[in-house]
């Protein structure tokens, strides 16, 4: 990209970082349908479906658990995120600045931006497993943390550069890319699932159900997933985006809050159909001599989306994994760029998104983020979700509690202690419980979120009352 072209792109990229989106820029529900379908029928799905199998899920746990968990996620997007987004029409980061103050929101933005970069990095890793097939690239194993050679690093760098440039061109570019790619990706998942069913010799629904049956023992180093593990993980795997309010930055462009229903395209086509299709691909691989050899040695077989998709549908599968990874990484890097731009408001969103893409690319070199995706996604949702409770509880309950909204902006303070105290107390106590009692982290995401919102209102009321009396 030439310097002139870069400058033109920067000039044309107006993302309304510190002002409401004007009516002239609002998008129809179709724009969100394509973006959510593209983002959630994506590279993560090629990893998550197989990883459920490594946790020994049963058929009922997987099929019914995913149905319930994804439905709960859609309700959160529709009745929490979208409602608040269309009322204020500002980014998450600017909304938090008004409530928390500039200094505190900087801490959050660093955490938010970096975690999103790591998530995007895992998708660059997934894409590389497909790009590397023609080069006979060795694939990372399930317990690998470091790159396995220079060719892996070079392919990651090229892939990350392309993804970063698309994301840096702004929301319109991200949305258009998703709309173009998502039909192809959906078709690929359907085709791969059908081929995998044939390879497994399934002839009726009973045989399909018996692929998972009553479940089995988890692979070495994995915990056993039950029905509630599946429900709560699938509900809160995107907790940072719905109850954590990150998608205020996206849904602020919606004409109506009903655009929140478009997230169902991502949840039930992506987080339902695509996860199950990807699990079928891995079930085929587990029957191979290579996978059986790993299991005989007590080693978890690798989860490499590129080769699995290629085994099912050939070149079409390689392209599907590459594009699916990109449609997740693009909006994730876009969100991270907005987080960094909020830290450095005088910098352009274009260059902050390039920075986010660079961090994501470096993360993508290390397979650990992709191979530990279930654990990482649970952790990043748990960390970021409670801050969203501050926005939700202020929006719906502040007036009833007699709490001043957007207190930091109106009081002229840069650090709202009430927010930090509520965040640290809720997340800290729940995380300590998870570690000390061995509780699955997704079980504690909702308790931490509720506790943070309630504590924020109570502490704010006490602090604001003291300041008024003083």
TrEMBL record:
GO terms for molecular function: cytosine transmembrane transporter activity. GO terms for cellular component: plasma membrane. The keyword Calcium does not apply. The chain crosses the membrane at residues 51-80, 107-130, 150-168, 180-202, 225-244, 265-288, 308-329, 350-370, 376-393, 413-434, 440-459. Keywords: Membrane, Transmembrane, Transmembrane helix. It comes from the Bacteria. This is Permease for cytosine/purines uracil thiamine allantoin. It comes from Haliscomenobacter hydrossis (strain ATCC 27775 / DSM 1100 / LMG 10767 / O).
């Amino acid at each position: 990209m030439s310097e002139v072209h870069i400058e033109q792109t920067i000039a044309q990229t107006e993302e309304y970082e510190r002002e409401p989106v004007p009516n002239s820029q609002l998008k129809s529900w179709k724009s969100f349908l394509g973006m959510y379908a593209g983002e959630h029928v994506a590279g993560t799905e090629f990893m998550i479906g197989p990883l459920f199998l490594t946790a020994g899920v049963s058929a009922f746990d997987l099929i019914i658990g995913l149905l319930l968990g994804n439905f709960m996620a859609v309700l959160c997007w529709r009745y929490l995120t979208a409602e608040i987004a269309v009322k204020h029409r500002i980014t998450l980061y600017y909304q938090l600045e008004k409530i928390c103050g500039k200094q505190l929101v900087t801490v959050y933005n660093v955490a938010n931006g970096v975690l999103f970069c790591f998530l995007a990095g895992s998708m660059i890793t997934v894409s590389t497993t497909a790009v590397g097939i023609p080069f006979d690239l060795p694939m990372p194993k399930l317990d690998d943390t470091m790159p396995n050679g220079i060719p892996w690093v070079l392919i990651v760098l090229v892939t990350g550069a392309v993804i970063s440039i698309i994301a840096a061109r702004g929301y319109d570019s991200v949305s258009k890319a998703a709309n173009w790619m998502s039909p192809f990706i959906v078709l690929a998942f359907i085709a791969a699932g059908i081929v995998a069913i044939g390879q497994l010799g399934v002839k009726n629904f009973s045989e399909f159900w018996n692929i998972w049956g009553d479940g089995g023992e988890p692979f070495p180093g994995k915990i056993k997933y039950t029905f509630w593990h599946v429900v709560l993980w699938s509900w809160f795997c995107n907790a940072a985006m719905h109850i954590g309010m990150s998608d205020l930055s996206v849904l602020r462009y919606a004409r109506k809050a009903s655009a929140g229903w478009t997230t169902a395209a991502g949840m039930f086509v992506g987080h339902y159909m695509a996860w199950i299709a990807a699990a079928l691909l891995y079930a085929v691989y587990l029957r191979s001599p290579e996978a059986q050899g790993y299991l005989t040695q007590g080693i978890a077989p690798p989860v490499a989306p590129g080769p699995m998709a290629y085994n099912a549908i050939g070149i079409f599968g390689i392209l599907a994994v590459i594009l699916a990874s990109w449609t997740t990484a693009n909006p994730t890097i876009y969100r991270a760029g907005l987080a960094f731009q909020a830290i450095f408001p005088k910098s352009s969103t274009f260059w902050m998104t390039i920075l986010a893409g660079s961090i994501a690319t470096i993360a993508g070199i290390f397979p650990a983020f992709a191979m530990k995706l279930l654990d990482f996604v649970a952790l990043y949702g748990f960390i970021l979700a409670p801050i969203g409770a501050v926005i939700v509880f202020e929006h719906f309950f502040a007036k009833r509690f007699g709490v001043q909204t957007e207190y930091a902006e109106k009081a002229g303070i840069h650090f709202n202690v009430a927010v930090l105290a509520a965040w640290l107390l809720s997340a800290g106590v729940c995380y300590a419980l998870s570690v000390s009692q061995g509780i699955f982290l997704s079980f504690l995401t909702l308790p931490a979120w509720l506790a943070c919102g309630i504590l924020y209102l109570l502490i704010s009321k006490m602090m604001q009352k003291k300041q008024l009396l003083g």
